[in-house]
Amino acid sequence: MLVILAIMVPAMVLWIQRETVFASKQSHNTVAFHLAEAGVEKAYLYVSLSTITWSRIQAGQAQTDYSFDKSYNDITGGTYAISITSGPGTEQVTIVTVGRDKYNKETRALRVVYSNAIFGGNAIYAGRGVQIGGQVDVEWGAVMSPYTIDAGGRTFPQFWSASQITTKDTNANPPNCDSPGCLQWHSYQANLPTPPTIDFDFYRTSAAATMGCFTATGTGSAVNSCYFSGNVTNWSGNTRGTIFIEGDLTVKSPGMYHIGTIIVMGNVNLPNGQWGNSGSPGTSLRMPTDAWKQYGNNWTHYRDVFDQTAPAAFPGLTATSYTSPSLCVPSPCLSQKVAVNGFLYVGGNFNNGGGGGGNSDIYGILYAVGSATQTASSQVTFYYNAEATNGLVTTNVSLTRVSWRDEVRGWPSGL
Question: Tens of pLDDT along 249-260?
Answer without folding.
Answer: 888 777 788 889
